[in-house]
Structure formats: C-alpha cells, structure tokens
Design a protein that fits this description.
This protein is an all-alpha fold. The protein is about 85% helix and about 0% strand. The protein contains three helices and no strands. About 5% of the residues have low confidence. Keywords: Signal.
Length: about 80
Amino acid sequence: MRALFSMLLAGVLMLGSGGVLASSCPAHMAAIDARLAENPVLSEEEAARVAELRAEGEARHLAGDHAESMRLLAEAEKILGI
C-alpha cells in the first residue's frame, strides 16, 4: 500500500512540474530580451548564438518541450551573464 501511494505521489508531482517549467519559460525569455535591450557587449558569434538559442527556446516552449526550452534559454542566459 505504501509503495502504491509513493508511486501515485511521484506521478502527481511529475505531472505538476510540467506546468511550473512551462510558466517559467516566458520569464526566462523576457529576461533575455531585457538584457539584449541593454545592448550588452557581445562578439558577433555570441550575439548570433544568443539569438539562435532564444528563438529555439521559444519554439520548444510552444511545442510543449519545456525541459529543452529551459536548457536552451539557460545557455543563452549564461552567455549574457544572467
């Protein structure tokens, strides 16, 4: 009985975590956009990579792949120093 309860609880937590990730993707995109609006000093390669990561992060978010979206957005934030 206890094992069944643990498995059920784990399932509920996993289902609920998708919403948390989904709701934080837009906040990370907004943070990237705000930092880019400040015209940070970036090489051409860094600027292109950030733009690519930001666009792909949004595409993954819209496709429902929030874990991959967060990974991509975190990489862009790292380049931007946020």
